[in-house]
Design brief:
Strand content: 15-25%
Shape: flat
Structural class: alpha+beta
Protein name: Pleiotropic ABC efflux transporter N-terminal domain-containing protein
Distance between the termini: 52 Å
Largest sheet: 2 strands, antiparallel
Domain Pleiotropic ABC efflux transporter N-terminal: 110-159
Number of domains: 2
Order of helices and strands: HHHEEHHEHE
Organism: Trapa natans
Radius of gyration: 33 Å
Strand order of the largest sheet: 1-2
Mean pLDDT: 73
Pfam family, one: ABC_trans_N
Number of strands: 4
Length: 195
C-alpha cells in the first residue's frame, strides 16, 4: 500500500515538473514573439525619448490580460506625428495587416532552422536514438507498360476517325500496340540511413 502511494506521488511530481517545463517554454516563446513584434524596419538610433516611450508602451501591453495582450501590438501611427499606437490586431486594416505579417515572417527560414536545431539538441541531450532502416535490394527491375500512339494527339475529327479505324483494325488483326520499356534492369545495392 505504501509503495502504491509512493509511486502515485512520484507520478504527480513528474506531472508537475512537466507542466512547469511547458509553462517555461510557453513564456519563453511569448517573449520571443513579443520581441519579434517589437522589431522595426527603420534604422535604429541611440536611446532617446522615442525609445523610452516605445518601451513604456510595450510595458503597458505586457501588463494587459493574456488574451488582450496576444491581440495587441504597436503600429506606426497614422497621424502626422509618426508615433506608434497600440492597436488590436483583429481590427486593423488590410495595409497594416500586410505590414504586420511581413514583420512576422521576414526570416521564416531562419526560424525553422532554429526550431530544428533545438529539436535536434533536445533529442541528443535526452539520448534518444532515431529509428533507422537499411534497405537492401538485389536484381531490381523497373518496367513501364506503354501504349504506342499513332497520329497527332490533337482531338480533331480526322484523328478521332483514325483512332476508331485503328481500333477496329486492331481487333480484326489482333496486333499488339503495347510496349514494355525497362527503366532499371538488374540493379543491386544498399540504402543506408543518415545519408
Amino acid at each position: 500500500m505504501a509503495e502504491l502511494v509512493h509511486t502515485e506521488l512520484e507520478g504527480i511530481e513528474s506531472l508537475r515538473n512537466e507542466l512547469a517545463e511547458i509553462g517555461r517554454s510557453l513564456r519563453s516563446s511569448f517573449r520571443i514573439h513579443t520581441s519579434s513584434f517589437r522589431s522595426t524596419s527603420g534604422v535604429s538610433s541611440a536611446k532617446d525619448d522615442g525609445d523610452d516611450e516605445y518601451e513604456l508602451q510595450w510595458a503597458a501591453i505586457e501588463r494587459l490580460p493574456t488574451f488582450e495582450r496576444l491581440r495587441s501590438s504597436l503600429f506606426d501611427g497614422e497621424d502626422s506625428g509618426g508615433g506608434r499606437a497600440v492597436a488590436d490586431i483583429t481590427k486593423i486594416g488590410p495595409l497594416q495587416r500586410h505590414l504586420f505579417m511581413e514583420k512576422l515572417i521576414k526570416h521564416i527560414e531562419h526560424d525553422n532552422l532554429k526550431l530544428l536545431q533545438k529539436i535536434r539538441d533536445r533529442i541528443h541531450k535526452v539520448g534518444v536514438k532515431m529509428p533507422t532502416i537499411e534497405v537492401r535490394y538485389r536484381n531490381l527491375r523497373v518496367e513501364a507498360d506503354c501504349q504506342i500512339v499513332q497520329g497527332k494527339p490533337l482531338p480533331t475529327l480526322w484523328n478521332s476517325l483514325q483512332s476508331i479505324l485503328s481500333g477496329l483494325a486492331k481487333v480484326a488483326f489482333s496486333r499488339d500496340a503495347d510496349a514494355k520499356i525497362r527503366i532499371i534492369d538488374g540493379v543491386s545495392g544498399v540504402l543506408k540511413p543518415g545519408r
